[in-house]
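thought: fold this chain, then report.
action: predict
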Amino acid sequence: MIVSTKGRYALSVMMDLAEHNTGEYLLLNDIAARQGISEKYLEGIMASLSKAGLVHSLRGRGGGYRLAKSPEEYTVGGILKLTEGSLAPVSCTEGRGASCARAAECRMYPMWARLDRMIFDYFEGITVADLVREGGGGDNYVI
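observation:
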């Protein structure tokens, strides 16, 4: 599993929105400048986040973006699944074995399934609020 630039930037943007969560809409160009992300690339990320209901968007004067919920309600896992599609370490765990005809007799499948569960539990156990509080990471996330 490799998290793409889109996934990393989506997390950065959600942290930025959480850090500046005053109820006001934030301008795309301000977010882009703070995060060092091109506005064009950020537009696509924000469209995905908005379509999924993670952020509210408002066009026109006074418009921009803001969180749809509190930072505590967003998990890193939820954001990464939205942007990455899957966090599975191998393809056979994406559908819980359904994608592989040999899953029932595969002696490695239990190992991959446990790793998949560890990844899921790890990322679902971290919220955007945690990232903001901890400065984006650190030893507090050790399994």
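thought: worth noting. Strands lie at 55-58, 64-67.
final: tokens above.
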